[in-house]
Design goal:
Number of strands: 5
Radius of gyration: 14 Å
Structural class: alpha+beta
Strand order of the largest sheet: 1-2-3-4-5
Largest sheet: 5 strands, mixed
Shape: globular
Strand content: 25-35%
Distance between the termini: 27 Å
Order of helices and strands: EEHEHEEHHH
Number of helices: 5
Length: about 120
């Protein structure tokens, strides 16, 4: 089973969203293994979506700095209050893995909210 997925974004600051698909995975270990293309003299960040790990709450999104060599700086984490567009985008990415969301530990109401499934 796929543990994470990455979607690139076209943004001045954020290079993309990493969605954690497995609630048992050690996030820092997973992020330490990821590598992005090097880019000199730039301040880049990556958003990590923890919806399936921590729930749909204020702890859902964490942002990390990415250094010039393309490594995620694990000691740079900060919770992010995302824009509506980022939330919509992150939800769209999770819809791509609807089966994982459906079998997640999220309450049914949150699963429906996340997948925009209304009714039965």
């Amino acid at each position: 089973m796929e543990k994470v997925m990455f979607h690139q974004m076209v943004d001045e600051i954020y290079i993309g969203i990493i969605t954690i698909l497995d609630y048992e995975i050690a996030v820092h270990k997973c992020l330490a293994e990821m590598l992005f293309p090097p880019k000199r003299n730039s301040k880049r960040k990556v958003i990590v979506d923890l919806a399936l790990k921590s729930g749909i709450n204020q702890y859902r999104f964490v942002v990390f700095d990415v250094n010039n060599e393309g490594k995620i700086l694990l000691n740079s984490s900060a919770y992010l209050k995302p824009s509506r567009d980022v939330v919509k985008l992150a939800n769209a990415f999770l819809k791509e893995r609807k089966e994982i969301v459906s079998h997640s530990m999220l309450p049914n109401a949150k699963k429906k909210e996340l997948l925009n499934v209304y009714g039965s």
